[in-house]
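To the structural biology subgroup,

Please find below the input and predicted structure for N-acetyltransferase domain-containing protein, which we are adding to the shared reference set this quarter. The sequence is reproduced verbatim from the submission form. If anyone notices a discrepancy with their own records, reply to this email rather than editing the shared folder directly, so we keep one authoritative version.
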Amino acid sequence: MLERRIREARQNDFQFVSDIMDAALAPYYDGDHRAHASRIFWTHISGGKDSVGHFSEEQKMFIIEEGNTRIGIINVVGKRQGTWKISPLIIANDFQGKAGCGSELLAFAERYIRERGARQAYCTVAEQNRSALAFFYRKGYVYAGRSVSHYKPGVTEIMLYKLFYSNEDEERIDRASISVVPFEERYREGVYRVILNSDLPKYFRGVDRSWVDALFTGYERRDTGEVNQKYKLIYVAVDRAGEVLGVAGVTPKKGQPIKIMPCAASNPQAFAALIADLPQHLRQFGRKLYTHIVPSVEETVVLQRMGWSLDAMMPGAYHENYCTQQWGNNMEDNTMRTLRVKNRFFNEIMSRRKTLEVRVAYANIKSIRVGENIQLLTGANSGIVRVRAVRTYTTFELMLSAEDSSKVLPGMDKPEALSLLRGIYPADKERLGVVVLDIEPVR
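Predicted structure (tokenized):
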């Protein structure tokens, strides 16, 4: 097998770069691609300083080759604001989809830019270039938006990005253990606290204690099931101690859209839990979710990662000084179930060291079926697994006596695994029952 390596582009690579860019870009982009190739190539060769880029600080180009055969290029552009653009990543036709050439080249470039402090990578891909678009989605890039006839008439350009997190950030996200559950009376004061201490009163005139009172009055009408009564459902995001960290008020509407208002949380992890879990709770009530919100950067990332899209901008709709946004999630288009997992467990699942995922028997967990594909989500990554089997037990102890604990929590013996599971789920949750999902990654 020929040796594969990645190196910086050299002067004698120019013709290869010019040819591959012209051939790959012409179907999707107008303009002089050889002139484009010349500009970025010679900028790299001359030291990487972009003399004409307004925000660009560095251009770096790498070549991947097998033996003496060049098979692809990637060019990365460092920006003043700490982001890096991938423009372009191209693999020769004969090597596309074979032996992970593109994956290897992208991983190399991401390591390079992360070592230089990149907080985000981004790129644009023609919507019609389906293989490239699917490739970037598999690598964790998130849909940011689309522009019709952007670089070429009739060709829609898709904007993608990927955030890079430090080990400290990932550990902080992993420490959160949050469940989304239907409202119970014991959570009432927590609902008031989260809503009134959130940014809702700042962005939405009229949000005060009486407004929350009206939410509960609507909740008391829930048994009517009559949309013209504007009945409400309430879901809360709670930590393992039962503290309310997030609140979603839910109003099913005529025609089967479902309005989520409020959608408030005391931290980004609780907001992410609500956005990830609500579709599974609400499918029986309608076909589309929508919410009115003035989102933070973190909340916008969550909405985009979870497949929500921006429906409208409404200047002054709820407050004369703010532009409210409507975000929507068409659940008929997003049928795959999602499960939130900690990053360390995600890595073990995707590497097949952890094949058993244990949950308590919430209603949305009990509905999981053999053969179902599930999207796993962490604070920074996502992947798809298939359910091979589902088994149920009454307690964690009984489950661990029957299952291989090394497949549940690699590196832990049964007593350690039992202690960890009971630390995550208090006794009242364990009494719901225990569900074991036998899963495998979907490549």
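Summary notes: The mean pLDDT is 93. The CA atoms of residues 254 and 307 lie 23 Å apart.

Regards,
Lab coordination
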